[in-house]
Amino acid sequence: MKPYAPACDRNGPPILDILRQTFCNVQHVLEIGSGTGQHAVFFAPQLPHLIWQPSDRVENLPGIQAWMEENPSPNLAPPIALDVDGPWPETQFDGLFSANTLHIMGMESVIRFWQGLGQVCSAGATVCIYGPFNVGGQYTSESNAAFDIWLKDRDPLSAIRDLETIESLAQENGFFLAANHAMPANNQMLVFHKQEAE
After folding, report:
1. Which is the CATH superfamily of the domain at 6-194?
2. Closest to 96 in 3D by CA, of 116, 131, 121
3. pTM of the predicted model over 0.90
4. How would you classify the pairing of strands 175-183 and 121-131?
């Protein structure tokens, strides 16, 4: 049976609305943490001008492949193994997408996530990161506060991250925050650009 995440059905359309704008001139997108593969098979055919590269830990690749086999798209590349704590691809990407990953990782992995982006993103690349974030050290909703408790009970290293911390890590690795879109269910879409080479 294919893995299934109901949240992907709910958040796919509003995320796509943002990606149509932010990825309009992007050619090659790396998705980090493709999870079930539902986002990949939904977004790729809607964005036919680019190549969508799914990735995740090796144990999740069969599920992603199962979704792709049932929903083929000519611009959807075979999924690749990528653990942010391990080796990163040699390929350069001018777009990157990741949904609901930074609160699952431990903080050390979040740091390596941004270091890896600095390696694989070309100058001027667009990075879109979706998920819940705290602002000024405060939860943005009661549901996010409850979700954070659930995360920490599940894994003490997990936590909703502060927007300011994420922006600081991005800057350290050559990215600047270009936009912050409010999304359904108290989530946000953070859009970063990699600084052009001087």
Report:
1. Vaccinia Virus protein VP39 (3.40.50.150)
2. 121
3. yes
4. unpaired
